[in-house]
Amino acid sequence: MLLAKTFTSSTFKQALLGIGIFGVIASAIFAYVYLATSSYVRSQSDRAIMVELASLRGAYERSGRDGLVALIRQRVADQTFADNIYLLVDPASAALAGNLKTWPPAVTSAGGWAEFRGVEPPPGADGRPLLRAAVETFPNGDRLLIGKDISDLDGFTDHIKTAVALSIALMFMIGSVASILVTRRTVGRIESINATSRAVMLSGPDKRIPLRGTHDEWDRVAENLNLMLDRIETLMGEIKQVSDNVAHDLRTPLTRMRGRLEKAWHGPRIGDDDQTLIGDAIADLDAVLRIFASITRIAQIETQARKDAFHRVDLAEIAGEVVELYDAAAEQDGTRLTIAGDREVLVTGDRDLIFDAIANLVDNAVKHGRAGGQVVVVHETIDGQPAVSVADDGPGIPADQHEHVFKRFYRLEHSRYAQGNGLGLSLVAAVARLHGARIELLDNAPGLKLRLCFPTAGSRNEA
């Protein structure tokens, strides 16, 4: 199965295309090397032949036929010219001098170059030698043939031709095997990802792509996909938790409303009681609507739909307005709400959203802090960064819950009968992400300090 997918994969087809292109280029290079080498070796032999032909032609011009015959006989007797071939014939093709007995039938031209096989093989040779000669015809009709045995050259070029052919064949074979191996490895990794994807579709996002520890690009892809699956699994868990919490939070007020309305339906019409029932039903509906309004607001913030409202604002001024707003409610609960910090702390952001974030922090601190305790709002600059913090002296939040409290509908009180809907800190987190701010949960000993650290005004990261 894997081998069949290897041969049909686009990677293998592209590899074959690359091998084909490379093979054509390499073949052209090898052919050029062969032709250049063969031409060079032949040119060396032809140059020697032409030098000897010029010498014989000079002898003919100086001394005529008799002088040329004498020189040819001298050359044939001299072992220095043993590799040369000489033949001088008269106009009737009768041999006058030389080491060839007759004029070769293959040589029909009156001048130029010719290649032909010798009549008899030399001693110790397997076949007839290959001869290359130059032909010249003199004014009186005599013809001179002078050449060399180029059997060694022929064998050399044959060796080059064989080496080139074998090199090309070996190159294609190695390239094909390498393509199959590389493609098989690639297809194997892809199949591993596909198998995990199918397992995720069948049983859920708890499966992970196995890593091979090679730290190559495939391992990096697998790591990223595994991180994506981790994130998907986390989000699905959060969605399930949110769904359960929404169902619980909506069921209580809706059940109360239904009970009241059913009671009113079956009971007599009493003006004051009906008025009270209608008021309670409206209050419960308002609570439901506030939940949906908070969810919608968080969604708008997370889609960064409010960035057009960003401008330079003063944290000190905003924090003062929040404290002024919650001062009466805190006093009613017996909580002392105070504010301190720098005179001016500038940030770039949406004033309304920052107000909502600080207001939610103060609201949480007043509601969940110690009865009769103290809540302190501080606006300051820390290491060049504008910051606002809200601290209480209540029970605080356990360290193992810090990463969960910003999830939607999450509550430390899991029975969900306490006041609130678990969306306040989710809105704070959404505002912080939109502004590129950092949220810090610090131990106030006792109690909790929650701090928002904003980027320096004018240098906020827009990413």
Please provide a written account of the structure.
- The protein is built from eight helices and twelve strands.
- It has 463 residues and is α+β, with helices and mostly antiparallel strands.
- Mean pLDDT is 78; it is low at 414-418.
- A hairpin with a 5-residue loop joins strand 4 and strand 5.
- Helix 5 packs parallel to helix 8 (424-435) and helix 6 (315-332) runs parallel beside helix 7.
- The strands form three sheets. Strands 2-1-5-4-3 form a five-stranded antiparallel beta sheet. A five-stranded mixed beta sheet has the order 7-9-10-12-11, covered by helices on one side.
Placed side by side, the strands forming the largest sheet appear as 2-1-5-4-3
What is the general shape? rod-shaped
Mean pLDDT across the residues is: 78
The structure class reads alpha+beta
Low-confidence stretches: 414-418
Question: Biggest β-sheet, characterized?
Answer: 5 strands, antiparallel
Distance between the termini: 46 Å
Q: Report the C-alpha radius of gyration, rounded.
A: 50 Å
Our estimate of the beta-strand percent is 15-25%
Total domain modules? 3
Helix content: 55-70%
In the CATH classification, which architecture of the largest domain applies? 2-Layer Sandwich
Quaternary arrangement of the chains shown?
A: single chain
Q: Kindly provide the name of the CATH class of the largest domain.
A: Alpha Beta
CATH topology of the largest domain: Beta-Lactamase
Helix/strand order, N-terminal first: HHEEEEEHHHEHEEHEEHEE
Number of strands: 12
Tally the helices: what do you get?
8
